[in-house]
């Protein structure tokens, strides 16, 4: 496969290491990188000497079989659409796009073209994430009693000083759609979407940004079962994400890269994953690359076989619909229903108004 890398900024580190790791195994040849910045292009060429710098980004798609779209979210619909029109498969960085409406159009464009689409929800590929989904699907936890989702991370103000970061127009929002979306995706992937949500979105005193750096809320799954949500980038010094699900037969506690399954009958605790680095900081060069490796391996294998990747566009769209419902609730101050898969999507917010 000839690979084009679209975007070589902050989000690219893990992807480039994954490509370098898998190049021989999967016969991947990075032939182009789309960036205005020659310094960034040189960093790519240090791993892939044959990569040509091209601009505008669409020019890098010519002759490619696979594109990694690692540009800001506000560009995803157009770039993925351009790739689909050329018959190019895509692995796109999360989120799919700014809003559920644009994300739905992006997914529809690839489906109409018959091209593959995977989304970088790499936490689905970690052993703890797969274990959580299996514990729910197998009935090991029993009927869901309730749970909590906490992403208490830290970002210094310098992180938000980059133009566009934490803005509605470029990123679609703040902590919810940029950082916490990974843990929320694991929850939705395991349980399916909630019936309705309620939330508040605020800016803490420690950050100056346009969108929110803190969200608190509740996901109602029906039958009196709810999962609380607290996510922020204002919790110094930051801790690994934590997801707890309590059921009639046991409790699952996901703490960063590690999952612990506690059976109610007093049996032995089962653990999956490792206690290694959680990758909670902003620098992708410091994040573990093995989950990016697995999500890329899975995507390429699925594209070649004409199958559905682990983090398919259609499944990622469900998560984005929940994200948008939380934003709508925070804006309106009321419960917001979450459309069922296949139903009408949550109405798109006005441009620049995703939270």
Model description:
By secondary structure, the chain is α/β, with parallel strands linked by helices. The chain has 2 domains: 2-123 and 295-310, NAD(P)-binding Rossmann-like Domain (Rossmann fold, 3-Layer(aba) Sandwich); 124-279 and 314-337, Dihydrodipicolinate Reductase, domain 2, CATH 3.30.360.10. It is 33% helix and 24% strand. It has helices at residues 12-26, 38-45, 76-85, 100-113, 127-137, 157-160, 168-171, 175-178, 181-191, 290-305, 313-332; strands spanning 2-6, 29-34, 52-54, 66-69, 89-93, 117-120, 144-152, 196-202, 214-222, 225-232, 242-247, 250-255, 258-263, 270-273, 336-337. The strands form 2 sheets. Strands 14-13-12-11-7-10-9-8-15 form a 9-stranded mixed beta sheet. A 6-stranded parallel beta sheet has the order 3-2-1-4-5-6, with helices on both faces. A hairpin with a 2-residue loop joins strand 12 and strand 13. The chain is globular. The relative contact order is 0.16.
